[in-house]
Amino acid sequence: MKLNFVILIALVLFSLWTVMTRSLIRSAIGLALTSAILTIAMFRLNSPIAAVFELSVCAGLISVLFVSTISLTHPETREEAMQHMKDRLTRFWYLPVIVIVAVVILSAMRMNLHFNLPTPDAEKDVQSVMWNLRQLDLFGQIIVLLTGVFGVVILLKEAKKK
Amino acid sequence: MISLLIFMPFLALLILNIPFKDITKKDAFWAVLALSALQAGISLFPNASFWDSASDVIGNFFKLNLAIDSLSIVLLFCIGTVTFITALVAKHFITDQKRLFNFTSLLLVILAGMNGIVMTRDIFSLYVFIEIAAIASFILIAMNKDIDAIEGAFKYLILSAIATTMMLSSIALILLMVGDTDLSVISYAMKTSERAPIIMAAIGLFICGLFIKGGLVPFHGWLPDAYSSASAPASVLLAGIVTKTVGIYTLMRIMISAFGFDNTVKTILMLVGTVSIVFGALAAIGQADFKRMLAYSSISQVGYIVLGLGCGTGLAIAGAAFHLFNHAMFKSLLFVNSASVELETKTRDMNKMTGFGQKMPVAAFTSAVATLSASGIPPLAGFWSKLIIVMALWAAGHYAYAAIAVLASVITLAYFLSMQRRVFFGKLSGELKDIRETAGGLVLSASILAAITIGAGVFFPFMLNVFILPIANMIGR
Fold first, then answer.
1. How confident is the model over B453-476, as a mean pLDDT?
2. What CATH number was assigned to the domain covering residues A2-112+123-161?
3. In the predicted model, what is the mean pLDDT of chain B?
4. Nearest C-alpha of chain A: how many angstroms from B231?
5. B407 pLDDT more than 90
6. Using CB atoms, which residue from A47, A57, A134 is nearest to B131?
7. Do B279 and B234 have their domain in common?
8. Which residues of A touch B102 (CB under 8 A)?
9. pTM
10. Whether residue B228 sits in one domain with residue B325
11. How far is the C-alpha of B4 from the C-alpha of B96, rounded, in Å?
12. Does A53 reach chain B within 8 Å, measured CB to CB?
């Protein structure tokens, strides 16, 4: 239970950092970290397939696509970036407040969410699930990854031409 | 053999990327044309043995959870047609062979992804195919070199990432509560499980993700930028079919096969649909940019589909599916014509356009067909789909929604007639006297789409019996 709290707090902190940080690249990295932590949460929620896809698609591929797109744009000067961060902090000061208030309210309510969850099948480890039960998804994920690689190659080539 | 619709595009992509001596980059274009034309052609025969999933050797061997029903066949026809048109437009716009090859390769990926979305009956596979289509679309938008395109792609990617996170979290919750991701199992659990409220919350999260992907108000922020900044062929594809399949069809499938039509959900869908209709129509009036106006109009038209879906009766959902078909045709047609105009004038600003009808008669005529169909003027196809939706709303006692749908049609007619008058009617200005009808692919594309729009309206009894009534009977409410 304690570990879940740590994961949730880290998830919230990295999400906030993603929204508030001053550079786009850092935002992209923040999003990748948020996705990675969400992956851990999903593993703990007994959803290994969702976790594997979150890790490969969101934390991996989407972040690479983000970074390659950002590399096509002009970077801001340090002063501009600082000004942007200040603006963002003034605009989104309420986000951390909302998160804290929500946590306090939910804790006070002591939400009782204990269900009789389906017992995890010991044989259904990630490997057997991927190869034996979810072949269509595996095929789909291969296309996703190939498309991502294809896209990064095209976009970076375009950047080089420029 | 339905699994071929997913495997063939991917196989073609692999073969085209292997450096055989006899395979050139030009073949990618012909591969897309052939596969999409075959798909559209075979979709016209819903009773063909091709659709029998029992005879699907590959699908049965790999235990793929694929199935076909009347709704899927309508979508497969739209996907085939719009992909075919996009390839023709791309051939005309992209002169560099290498870039055309990249574009058509991505078209093959999107074709496989969208076919997968339409045929799978598993919420997780649905998500995987949505990601395939979304990632390829993002690259298609960003391929256009200017900074607007990168901004459009970036906005799309950010909102798409948020939607993705919502959908994955939802799948995690569903897997936790139900122990399976098959839509029929989820549907059964919704009716019988003690955890139904949590499953409902999870599907609600999934639907919010789909609202973002479909560009519905209030999640529409990315849509006008993405549509207007993408290259002409990419905007035909995105506006014509990608957002409709990824966002709207998936929403319909989830509602029909898993979620069911709870009163609260029906109200939410009808509200979101109505707000989208009105907001999109009002925002379209104020636009001077041709493609942005079409993008806002898309939000409005998608609103009609969601309104029909929210009504929840068999007739309303069949009307929504027919409007989805019509929207794919007339909106692709309008984007093809905007591409023709942009190619000749190098601008999208409608204030600088006038009298193009004299020099571009095919674009002017087909544009008139599309705008009248979108505004619901008989006997064009858009009239029938809107009529079915309004009739179904009226029959279900939703008089206010029906009235708003009719009134918003008048606004649609107003902004489309204004566009038609500004761009195609009036006197041609001296500076633009040298413009001419864009030859070849664009004229052919516009003519095919206009013929479908007129044909589906004039031969409405055929459409009703072969496509619409089977959908209504399938839902059976």
1. 90
2. 1.20.120
3. 88
4. 15
5. yes
6. A57
7. no
8. 150, 154
9. 0.85
10. no
11. 31
12. yes
